[in-house]
Amino acid sequence: MNHQPRIAFISEHGSPLASLGGADSGGQNVYVGQLAKSLAARGYQIHVFTRWENATLPLVVKWCPGVSVIHVKAGPQMVIPKEELLPCIAEFTQSIFDFICTQKLEYELIHAHYFMSAMAAVQLKNLLNIPFIVVTFHSLGHVKRLHHGTDIRFLEERLQIEKDVVKQADYIVAECPQEREDLMNYYNAPSSKIVIIPGGFNPDEIYPIEKAVARKMLNINTNRHILLLLGRMVPQKGIDNVIHALSRLKIKDSQSVYLIVVGGESDNGNPTVCAETRRLQQLARENGLETSISFVGRKNREQLKFYYSAADIFITTPWYEQFGITVLEAMACRTAVIGANVGGIKYTIVDGETGALVAPKDPNALASKITELIDNTQLREYMGNNGLKRVNGYFTWNHIAEQVSNVYMKMMTYT
């Protein structure tokens, strides 16, 4: 690409610089960062606009070649739960506008991530005469209401914003076929606007490590069956479902099974700084599992391949998941996976071939599937090998960036 198109990514709470595993830092942060990197490798200039929540960070961080992260003011310089951010979005939008005008920048298009960023993108498109908007929602208010009920902050406002954004967006990136259906059914999104492009993984960052080596690196007992959970510490991730399943395992030596939970607000799983960790630890004690579960806290990206590779089985059973990048990463480490039969997970996992699907909130079904895989080493290896082939064939960030670039180029040829 001779010309370097400049793209504005807007991701109000999903900064690629954030530590992962907290209540609001997870798959979206990884998605935004890795997609930006991969697009930059294809010749794009990517400016990621995100909320300035840490006073120690500079206004502009040149994160990697071709990618800059720009922190703009929106409310107090502190971490604010994303559910409380809507009142800050007017200032967020104005701050982006001021930065762009001051720097005299021009963009080929805006790619917005999440509904609040998309609202800002619609306004900026009109204010700055930017030709096109692409939106990746990452979650949808209507779907969240189905699984969480109506006790959601700013729910009605969110639903209206999402409807407006669907009308204004030039393209909407759905991360799985289920999201495409949801957009059409709940928002009347025209199919011509929707393109299905999943999330991805970076094979230079996430790849198989010999199990014994990974366990030695992490000081994990090599004689136990290791189960792994990795993600944000929030109730909707269904970690309590896994704890209940462990209490119902029907294997000869239940003490041979050990669950490692990665994620949280601290680097060591300190329950005093994470209410969800406290709740789950109490649940483990109530089920007599306190010696069979370890909450190790959040870990940096460089460590994750060791955790994925050390595990015999990776488990994720959220109430709902728009996509679920951790499933890809576990498969990329040749680890058998068990996932909830929801959203993007049922698209990523080929049941019985690359992993196993179970109903969410069904600890008996999960316990049965865990038991089956623990008792069948050959099946675990079969799934692990197939999973590795699948993700390398379809889900690398380079492959995903190629598809996103095709969407961008389709629009830019019209200008």
TrEMBL record:
Keywords: Glycosyltransferase, Transferase. Residues 214-389 form the Glycosyl transferase family domain. Residues 26-204 form the Glycosyltransferase subfamily 4-like N-terminal domain. It holds the Pfam family Glyco_transf_4. Gene3D superfamilies: Glycogen Phosphorylase B. InterPro entries: Glyco_trans_1 (IPR001296), Glyco_trans_4-like_N (IPR028098). This is Uncharacterized protein. One of its GO terms (molecular function) is glycosyltransferase activity. It comes from Didymodactylos carnosus. The keyword Kinase does not apply.
